[in-house]
DUF3820 family protein (Ferruginibacter yonginensis), 82 residues
Amino acid sequence: MEDVPMPDGSILVTIVTLQMPFGKYKGTLLKNLPVSYLEWFARKGFPKNKLGQTLQCLLEIKMNGLEGLLQQVQHQVNATKS
């Protein structure tokens, strides 16, 4: 039986800690970006880098109503800082 790679949870930490580095929402935490902005990227094209992959993941999370997952990650990140 082949080993199935585990998903990389660090992308979730990035979503709750990284600020948008450019554009209309520069300085906004990625988790707080509106779906309409993420949908705009989906139509126009996500950046071809890790940020683009992260934004695509965030769009999927928001479109599937999984923001609670981000709240849990945020709580863990905050607890680690304390």
